[in-house]
From TrEMBL:
Keywords: Metal-binding, Zinc, Zinc-finger. One of its GO terms (molecular function) is zinc ion binding. It comes from the Eukaryota. Pfam families: SWIM (PF04434). PANTHER family: MUDR FAMILY TRANSPOSASE (PTHR31973:SF195), POLYPROTEIN, PUTATIVE-RELATED (PTHR31973). InterPro entries: Znf_PMZ, Znf_SWIM. SMART domains: ZnF_PMZ. Residues 87-119 form the SWIM-type domain. This is SWIM-type domain-containing protein.
Length: 160
């Protein structure tokens, strides 16, 4: 999320930039085809409902929430205390006064403590783009080979 995508792709094309235009285009298509296949395969092999990266973040936050004191204000709002500090969590709005919840759309340790108090599945608090199924869907449409130019069907108004 912090790396410039153009810079990333540009570094992958370091060698290919010297190729003729059509060869460069085919190189890029092959590269993307491989990336999509590899990422789709990796997503399908993930064992959790969240992506591996999101699951790792949540696991670290769960460890922190074990030592917090939670007091319900109502069904959705909780006061969470730890080491003399206090935060307010609203599970319905997916907010916490620490602002982590709103910034990365994953529940902070305070929200996880509140969710545990309410016996709520924490994955329901995560943005959809952190979910395994969303990642699988993102890479589900393969990038197909274009075939030899002699097999292309080119409309007559373009071919002229």
């Amino acid at each position: 999320m912090t790396t410039n995508v153009a810079e990333c792709i540009n570094s992958c094309l370091k060698f290919a930039r010297q190729l003729p235009l059509m060869t460069l285009a085919e190189f890029i298509r092959n590269m993307l085809q491989k990336w999509f296949h590899d990422r789709h395969t990796a997503a399908q092999s993930m064992r959790h409902r969240l992506t591996d990266a999101a699951h790792g973040v949540i696991q670290k936050r769960v460890e922190k929430c074990n030592y917090m004191t939670v007091n319900a204000v109502d069904w959705n709002i909780f006061s969470v205390k730890h080491k003399g500090e206090q935060w307010t969590v609203n599970l319905a709005r997916k907010t916490c006064t620490c602002n982590k919840f709103q910034m990365d759309f994953l529940p902070c340790s305070h929200a996880l403590a509140a969710a545990r108090e309410r016996n709520l599945d924490f994955t329901s608090l995560c943005a959809d783009y952190y979910k395994r199924e969303t990642l699988i869907d993102a890479y589900s449409v393969p990038i197909m080979p274009v075939g030899h130019p002699s097999s292309w069907v080119v409309p007559s108004d373009i071919a002229a």
